[in-house]
Specification:
This protein is an alpha/beta fold. It has helices spanning 36-44, 86-102, 121-132, 149-164, 184-197; strands spanning 6-12, 25-30, 62-67, 71-75, 106-114, 137-142, 173-175. The structure holds guanosine-5'-triphosphate (GTP) and magnesium ion (MG). Magnesium ion binds next to helix 1.
Amino acid sequence: MIIKSAEFLVSSRLVEQCPASQIPEYAFIGRSNVGKSSLINSLTGRKNLAHTSSTPGKTQLINHFLINNQWHLVDLPGYGYARSSKAKRAQFAGSIMQYILHREELTLLFVLLDSRLEPQQIDLDFITRLGECAIPFALVFTKSDKTKQRELDKNITQYKTTLLAEWETLPRIFITSATTGMGREELLVYIEEINRSLH
Ligand code: GTP
Ligand code: MG
């Protein structure tokens, strides 16, 4: 898919404040610092569309971007940011879950996982939760440029094994790097295919 236009629309604290819409919507979720905002910039080819930072906890609101005047890309706050207060973490988790459960236009959720790490409990718990709520999702491994092939294979295999203990089938899995652009085209093609299937 060619990105002809990508524009920031609005930041919202609550799902009720998100823009009224009838177009397909794809959201990026994952732990703080996993690379959600960076991947959005890589996908859209706009360096500073979503704000990134080496310090976790950068994205604090639900950010809507309009792509090709056809679909929304949504940058969500990360979960599990250890240095925010417990109350703030709970508030974040609440608003993210509200968005995921109640945003009718949400077509698919991309769950980002750090390709350098073996399966993390917090991510597995989150994925289980999505299953319980029947939220469609795909898995996206990030920062592949920072991971040796052997390490990457090992971590992904471990994820698959762990998931297959609970799930009958595996979700779509993408391996990406915001730095090298790896996986970018595959992700965009996937989104395009879904958009087409909705017509
Ligand atoms: P929060 O908004 O805090 O939840 O974080 P986020 O998930 O949006 O992460 P962000 O995109 O801000 O990236 C976090 C850090 O990881 C930044 O320093 C990025 O430059 C770096 N980073 C993100 N993606 C990649 C990648 O693919 N490769 C490399 N090498 N670094 C990356
Ligand atoms: Mg972010």
